[in-house]
C-alpha cells in the first residue's frame, strides 16, 4: 500500500504532490492541536506550483482539473490527503474556488484571481453558515457592504481569498463573491474543538463591516448550486478521503509487519478485506473524476454517480477504520501510535453534508432512468443505442 517511487514520465503536479505529501506527513503530528494549521505545507504547495496548478492551461496554468487533467487532479488530491487530511481539505477548497472562477469569472476576474493564485494566495470556498445571521450583501453601486458570518470555514484566518455565498436582502438565491481577507483577522476558531482535523482551522468568520467592489461578484444568482458541478464536485473530497484511508491502511499494515502479527489468518483476512475496500474506493474515485470531467452523461446522471461514489468511499473509510482498529487493538488508541491521529482525522473528514439525501437521490435517479441498469453509467457511444 506504499507509494511507488515517482516514474520519470509522471506529471509535474503529481510529482510535486508526492513531495508535499511527504513533508505534510512528517509535520502532521505536531500540527494536531486546537488552533493548529499546516502553514509550512501550504508554503510547500505554493513553492512547488500546486497553488497555481489549477489555473487553466490557456491562462498560463497547468490545467489541473480540466478534462484531460482530471486523473492528475485525483492523484494530487489523494496524495496530499494521504500526507495530511487537514492539508487535503484546504487544498480541495483552493481547487474548488479556482474551478468556480474558471467557470463563472469574467475575463478580467479570471486574470486578477488567477494572478492571485500564482502569487501564493490561498483560496477557500465557504458556503456553510448559521441558520440565523448568514452572509448578506447590501448595496447596488460600485461598492457593496457585507454583514453576517460563515461557519465551518476551513482555513479561517489563513485563507486570503474567500469564495463565499451571500444573499441579497429578501432574496433566496445566493450570489458568489470572492472576498480578499487579511490573514489573522476576523476569524474565530474557539468553537473548533474537534475530535479530528484539528489542523484545518475550521472556524467562524465575521464579515460584518467589510466592503467589496461590485466586480467581486462572480456569475449570477444560484450559479453556485448549478448542476452537475455543485454535487458533482463531491468527487474531489472523496479523492482526499481516499488518501486518508490509504494512510490509515498504511499505519495498520506497518503495525502488523512491525509487531510480527501479520501471519495470523484472522489478521490476514482483515487486511485482505481492507484492501478490497481501499481498491473499491480508488476505482470509484477514478471513475467519478472521469464521469464529471467527460460531461457525457445527463447532469442528473452525473450527480447520481458522484453521490454513489462519495458514499462508497465513505463506506470504505468506515470499514477500513473498523478493521484497522480491530487488528491493532488498544495500541492504536494511544497517542504515540500513528493510527490514533489518522483515525480521528479520517472519522471527522468522512462527515460530509446530507449523506442520506445523496443515497436516496441517486436511487431515485436509478428508478426513473430509461436506460437498462447495466448501461446507466456508460459513457461510450453504444450506451445511446
Ligand atoms: C473538516 C471539515 C472542514 C469543513 N470545511 C468547510 C468549508 O471550508 N466550507 C464549507 O462551506 N463547509 C465546510 N465544512 C462543512 C461541510 O461542508 C458540511 O457542512 C458538514 O461536513 C456537514 O456534516 P454534517 O455531518 O453536519 O452533515 P448533515 O448534513 O447535518 O448530516 C448529518 C446527518 O443528518 C442527516 N440529515 C441531513 N439533513 C437532514 C434533514 N434536513 N433532516 C433530517 N436529517 C438530515 C444526514 O443524512 C446525516 O445522517 C467542513 C466540514 C468538515 C468536517
TrEMBL record:
Entries under Pfam families matching the protein: Acyl-CoA_dh_1 (PF00441), Acyl-CoA_dh_N (PF02771)
SUPFAM superfamilies associated with the record: Acyl-CoA dehydrogenase C-terminal domain-like, Acyl-CoA dehydrogenase NM domain-like
Cofactor requirements of the protein: FAD
GO biological process: fatty acid beta-oxidation using acyl-CoA dehydrogenase
Alphabetized GO MF terms: acyl-CoA dehydrogenase activity; flavin adenine dinucleotide binding
InterPro entries per record: Acyl-CoA_dehydrogenase, Acyl-CoA_Oxase/DH_mid-dom_sf, AcylCo_DH-like_C, AcylCo_DH/oxidase_C, AcylCoA_DH/ox_N, AcylCoA_DH/ox_N_sf, AcylCoA_DH/oxidase_NM_dom_sf
Domain Acyl-CoA dehydrogenase/oxidase N-terminal: 22-116
Domain Acyl-CoA dehydrogenase/oxidase C-terminal: 236-347
The family this protein is said to belong to: Belongs to the acyl-CoA dehydrogenase family.
Name of this chain's protein: Acyl-CoA dehydrogenase
